[in-house]
Protein backbone atom coordinates (compact mmCIF):
# COMPACT_ATOMS: atom_id res chain seq x y z
CA UNK A 1 0.00 0.00 0.00
CA UNK A 2 1.45 3.33 -0.99
CA UNK A 3 2.45 5.65 1.81
CA UNK A 4 2.63 8.67 -0.46
CA UNK A 5 0.28 11.50 0.38
CA UNK A 6 -0.97 14.05 -2.09
CA UNK A 7 -0.36 17.64 -1.25
CA UNK A 8 -2.82 20.26 -2.33
CA UNK A 9 -1.13 23.47 -3.51
CA UNK A 10 -1.43 26.25 -1.00
CA UNK A 11 -3.78 29.04 -2.10
CA UNK A 12 -2.03 32.10 -3.41
CA UNK A 13 -2.26 34.84 -0.86
CA UNK A 14 -3.53 38.12 -2.26
CA UNK A 15 -1.54 41.28 -1.77
CA UNK A 16 -2.74 43.35 1.15
CA UNK A 17 -3.00 46.31 -1.22
CA UNK A 18 -5.48 44.45 -3.44
CA UNK A 19 -7.57 43.47 -0.41
CA UNK A 20 -7.79 47.11 0.64
CA UNK A 21 -8.69 48.22 -2.88
CA UNK A 22 -11.60 45.76 -2.90
CA UNK A 23 -12.64 46.78 0.59
CA UNK A 24 -12.73 50.46 -0.37
CA UNK A 25 -14.78 49.62 -3.49
CA UNK A 26 -17.26 47.71 -1.33
CA UNK A 27 -17.52 50.64 1.10
CA UNK A 28 -18.20 53.04 -1.80
CA UNK A 29 -21.20 50.89 -2.78
CA UNK A 30 -22.44 50.13 0.75
CA UNK A 31 -22.20 53.77 1.82
CA UNK A 32 -23.78 54.95 -1.45
CA UNK A 33 -20.95 57.37 -2.15
CA UNK A 34 -21.32 59.44 -5.31
CA UNK A 35 -18.88 61.30 -7.58
CA UNK A 36 -17.50 64.24 -5.63
CA UNK A 37 -17.89 62.58 -2.21
CA UNK A 38 -14.75 62.33 -0.11
CA UNK A 39 -13.25 59.10 1.14
CA UNK A 40 -12.17 58.95 4.80
CA UNK A 41 -8.85 60.62 5.55
CA UNK A 42 -5.68 58.60 5.12
CA UNK A 43 -5.19 58.13 8.88
CA UNK A 44 -8.75 56.85 9.20
CA UNK A 45 -8.18 54.34 6.39
CA UNK A 46 -4.99 53.17 8.10
CA UNK A 47 -6.97 52.52 11.28
CA UNK A 48 -9.97 50.97 9.52
CA UNK A 49 -7.90 48.47 7.55
CA UNK A 50 -5.08 47.99 10.08
CA UNK A 51 -2.52 48.72 7.40
CA UNK A 52 0.61 50.79 7.07
CA UNK A 53 0.68 54.22 5.47
CA UNK A 54 2.55 52.94 2.41
CA UNK A 55 0.04 50.15 1.81
CA UNK A 56 -2.94 52.51 2.03
CA UNK A 57 -1.29 55.02 -0.29
CA UNK A 58 -0.56 52.25 -2.80
CA UNK A 59 -4.22 51.18 -2.65
CA UNK A 60 -5.40 54.75 -3.24
CA UNK A 61 -2.98 55.12 -6.14
CA UNK A 62 -4.38 51.93 -7.68
CA UNK A 63 -7.92 53.28 -7.41
CA UNK A 64 -6.80 56.55 -8.99
CA UNK A 65 -5.16 54.74 -11.92
CA UNK A 66 -8.41 52.81 -12.40
CA UNK A 67 -10.23 56.13 -12.62
CA UNK A 68 -12.42 55.50 -9.58
CA UNK A 69 -11.03 58.28 -7.40
CA UNK A 70 -9.07 61.50 -7.78
CA UNK A 71 -6.73 62.96 -5.20
CA UNK A 72 -6.35 66.59 -4.28
CA UNK A 73 -3.57 68.12 -2.22
CA UNK A 74 -3.60 71.16 -0.01
CA UNK A 75 -6.40 72.59 2.15
CA UNK A 76 -9.60 70.66 1.64
CA UNK A 77 -7.67 67.94 -0.12
CA UNK A 78 -8.00 64.19 0.08
CA UNK A 79 -9.36 61.35 -2.05
CA UNK A 80 -12.67 61.94 -3.83
CA UNK A 81 -14.95 59.60 -5.75
CA UNK A 82 -14.56 60.25 -9.46
CA UNK A 83 -16.95 59.45 -12.28
CA UNK A 84 -15.51 57.00 -14.79
CA UNK A 85 -16.57 58.25 -18.19
CA UNK A 86 -17.39 55.83 -20.99
CA UNK A 87 -14.56 57.32 -23.03
CA UNK A 88 -12.02 56.72 -20.22
CA UNK A 89 -13.20 53.14 -19.74
CA UNK A 90 -12.86 52.49 -23.46
CA UNK A 91 -9.38 54.00 -23.53
CA UNK A 92 -8.26 51.64 -20.78
CA UNK A 93 -9.76 48.68 -22.60
CA UNK A 94 -8.18 49.78 -25.88
CA UNK A 95 -4.78 49.73 -24.16
CA UNK A 96 -5.26 46.03 -23.46
CA UNK A 97 -5.92 45.38 -27.15
CA UNK A 98 -3.13 47.68 -28.36
CA UNK A 99 -0.59 44.93 -29.08
CA UNK A 100 -3.13 42.29 -30.14
CA UNK A 101 -3.79 41.42 -33.77
CA UNK A 102 -7.31 42.77 -34.12
CA UNK A 103 -9.10 42.43 -37.46
CA UNK A 104 -12.25 43.76 -39.07
CA UNK A 105 -13.64 40.22 -38.99
CA UNK A 106 -12.99 40.01 -35.22
CA UNK A 107 -15.03 43.16 -34.64
CA UNK A 108 -17.88 42.15 -36.93
CA UNK A 109 -18.13 38.70 -35.36
CA UNK A 110 -19.35 40.53 -32.26
CA UNK A 111 -21.25 43.28 -34.05
CA UNK A 112 -23.33 40.74 -35.98
CA UNK A 113 -24.28 39.08 -32.70
CA UNK A 114 -24.82 42.16 -30.53
CA UNK A 115 -26.08 45.01 -32.75
CA UNK A 116 -29.43 43.25 -33.39
CA UNK A 117 -29.82 42.66 -29.64
CA UNK A 118 -29.03 46.25 -28.68
CA UNK A 119 -31.46 47.59 -31.30
CA UNK A 120 -34.25 45.40 -29.94
CA UNK A 121 -33.43 46.51 -26.39
CA UNK A 122 -33.78 50.16 -27.48
CA UNK A 123 -37.39 49.65 -28.61
CA UNK A 124 -39.75 51.49 -26.30
CA UNK A 125 -36.96 53.73 -25.01
CA UNK A 126 -36.05 55.68 -28.12
CA UNK A 127 -38.11 58.85 -28.41
CA UNK A 128 -38.84 61.51 -31.03
CA UNK A 129 -35.51 63.20 -30.29
CA UNK A 130 -33.68 59.92 -30.89
CA UNK A 131 -35.42 59.29 -34.19
CA UNK A 132 -34.63 62.85 -35.27
CA UNK A 133 -30.94 62.28 -34.44
CA UNK A 134 -30.93 59.18 -36.64
CA UNK A 135 -32.45 61.09 -39.57
CA UNK A 136 -29.95 63.93 -39.12
CA UNK A 137 -27.05 61.48 -39.22
CA UNK A 138 -28.31 59.82 -42.41
CA UNK A 139 -28.46 63.30 -43.98
CA UNK A 140 -24.70 63.62 -43.36
CA UNK A 141 -23.85 60.66 -45.62
CA UNK A 142 -26.76 60.30 -48.07
CA UNK A 143 -24.74 61.99 -50.83
CA UNK A 144 -21.26 61.84 -52.34
CA UNK A 145 -18.62 63.73 -50.32
CA UNK A 146 -17.20 66.95 -51.69
CA UNK A 147 -13.71 66.36 -50.31
CA UNK A 148 -11.59 64.19 -48.02
CA UNK A 149 -12.80 65.96 -44.88
CA UNK A 150 -16.44 65.33 -45.70
CA UNK A 151 -15.64 61.72 -46.63
CA UNK A 152 -14.16 61.15 -43.16
CA UNK A 153 -17.10 62.87 -41.45
CA UNK A 154 -19.53 60.68 -43.38
CA UNK A 155 -17.82 57.45 -42.28
CA UNK A 156 -17.84 58.60 -38.65
CA UNK A 157 -21.53 59.55 -38.89
CA UNK A 158 -22.35 56.09 -40.24
CA UNK A 159 -20.95 54.60 -37.02
CA UNK A 160 -22.58 57.30 -34.89
CA UNK A 161 -25.97 56.16 -36.22
CA UNK A 162 -25.47 52.87 -34.40
CA UNK A 163 -24.11 54.70 -31.37
CA UNK A 164 -27.38 56.59 -31.03
CA UNK A 165 -29.39 53.36 -31.29
CA UNK A 166 -27.25 51.73 -28.58
CA UNK A 167 -27.56 54.76 -26.31
CA UNK A 168 -31.29 54.05 -25.92
CA UNK A 169 -30.73 50.45 -24.81
CA UNK A 170 -31.96 49.47 -21.36
CA UNK A 171 -28.97 47.13 -21.04
CA UNK A 172 -26.00 49.24 -19.95
CA UNK A 173 -23.45 46.45 -20.54
CA UNK A 174 -24.74 45.66 -24.02
CA UNK A 175 -24.74 49.35 -24.94
CA UNK A 176 -21.18 49.80 -23.67
CA UNK A 177 -19.86 46.84 -25.66
CA UNK A 178 -21.56 48.05 -28.85
CA UNK A 179 -20.20 51.56 -28.35
CA UNK A 180 -16.75 50.06 -27.81
CA UNK A 181 -16.94 48.03 -31.03
CA UNK A 182 -17.99 51.16 -32.91
CA UNK A 183 -15.04 53.02 -31.43
CA UNK A 184 -12.66 50.24 -32.49
CA UNK A 185 -13.85 50.68 -36.06
CA UNK A 186 -13.03 54.38 -35.78
CA UNK A 187 -9.57 53.78 -34.28
CA UNK A 188 -8.31 50.61 -35.99
CA UNK A 189 -5.48 51.52 -38.36
CA UNK A 190 -6.78 49.46 -41.28
CA UNK A 191 -10.22 51.07 -40.93
CA UNK A 192 -8.70 54.54 -40.97
CA UNK A 193 -6.88 53.63 -44.17
CA UNK A 194 -10.13 52.39 -45.70
CA UNK A 195 -12.08 55.49 -44.69
CA UNK A 196 -9.46 57.79 -46.20
CA UNK A 197 -9.29 56.07 -49.59
CA UNK A 198 -10.91 57.93 -52.50
CA UNK A 199 -12.77 54.86 -53.77
CA UNK A 200 -16.52 55.56 -54.01
CA UNK A 201 -18.62 53.84 -51.36
CA UNK A 202 -22.01 52.29 -52.19
CA UNK A 203 -24.24 53.63 -49.41
CA UNK A 204 -27.76 53.20 -50.76
CA UNK A 205 -28.22 49.64 -49.48
CA UNK A 206 -26.99 50.51 -45.99
CA UNK A 207 -29.18 53.59 -45.85
CA UNK A 208 -32.16 51.56 -46.99
CA UNK A 209 -31.55 49.16 -44.09
CA UNK A 210 -31.39 52.10 -41.71
CA UNK A 211 -34.68 53.63 -42.87
CA UNK A 212 -36.31 50.21 -42.54
CA UNK A 213 -34.84 49.91 -39.04
CA UNK A 214 -36.23 53.28 -38.00
CA UNK A 215 -39.67 52.31 -39.29
CA UNK A 216 -39.59 48.95 -37.47
CA UNK A 217 -38.48 50.61 -34.23
CA UNK A 218 -41.31 53.14 -34.49
CA UNK A 219 -43.74 50.22 -34.90
CA UNK A 220 -41.99 48.43 -32.01
CA UNK A 221 -41.69 45.33 -34.16
CA UNK A 222 -38.89 43.47 -32.35
CA UNK A 223 -38.73 40.61 -34.84
CA UNK A 224 -38.36 42.97 -37.79
CA UNK A 225 -35.77 45.09 -35.96
CA UNK A 226 -33.65 42.05 -35.23
CA UNK A 227 -33.88 40.72 -38.79
CA UNK A 228 -33.12 44.09 -40.41
CA UNK A 229 -30.12 44.75 -38.18
CA UNK A 230 -28.78 41.24 -38.72
CA UNK A 231 -28.87 41.72 -42.49
CA UNK A 232 -27.47 45.25 -42.17
CA UNK A 233 -24.46 44.06 -40.15
CA UNK A 234 -23.72 41.28 -42.64
CA UNK A 235 -23.87 43.79 -45.50
CA UNK A 236 -21.63 46.20 -43.57
CA UNK A 237 -19.04 43.49 -42.92
CA UNK A 238 -19.04 42.41 -46.57
CA UNK A 239 -18.55 46.02 -47.65
CA UNK A 240 -15.67 46.62 -45.22
CA UNK A 241 -13.91 43.39 -46.16
CA UNK A 242 -14.33 44.25 -49.83
CA UNK A 243 -12.76 47.68 -49.27
CA UNK A 244 -9.96 46.07 -47.24
CA UNK A 245 -9.21 43.70 -50.13
CA UNK A 246 -9.13 46.64 -52.56
CA UNK A 247 -6.72 48.45 -50.24
CA UNK A 248 -4.41 45.41 -50.07
CA UNK A 249 -4.46 44.98 -53.87
CA UNK A 250 -3.56 48.63 -54.33
CA UNK A 251 -0.72 48.31 -51.83
CA UNK A 252 0.72 45.28 -53.64
CA UNK A 253 0.47 46.93 -57.05
CA UNK A 254 2.30 50.03 -55.77
CA UNK A 255 5.22 48.07 -54.32
TrEMBL record:
The parts of the chain that form a coiled coil are: none
Which InterPro entries has this protein been placed in?
A: GntR_C (IPR011711), TF_FadR/GntR_C (IPR008920), Tscrpt_reg_HTH_GntR (IPR000524), WH-like_DNA-bd_sf (IPR036388), WH_DNA-bd_sf (IPR036390)
Q: Which domain of life is it from?
A: Bacteria
CDD domains linked to this entry: WHTH_GntR
Tell me the ranges covered by the HTH gntR-type domain, including all copies. Answer: 14-84
Tell me the protein's name: FCD domain-containing protein
- UniProt organism field: Rahnella inusitata
Supply the Gene3D superfamilies for this chain: GntR ligand-binding domain-like, Winged helix-like DNA-binding domain superfamily/Winged helix DNA-binding domain
Q: Name one Pfam family in it.
A: GntR
Cite the entry's keywords alphabetically. Answer: DNA-binding, Transcription, Transcription regulation
Amino acid sequence: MSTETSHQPEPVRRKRTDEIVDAIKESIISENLLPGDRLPQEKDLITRYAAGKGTVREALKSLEVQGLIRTKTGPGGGAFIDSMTESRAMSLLSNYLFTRQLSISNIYALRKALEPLVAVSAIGNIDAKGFEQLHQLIAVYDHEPADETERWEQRMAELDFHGVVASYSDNVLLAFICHFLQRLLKDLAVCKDIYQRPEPVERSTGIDYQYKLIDAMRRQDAEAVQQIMTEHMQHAEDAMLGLEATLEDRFLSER
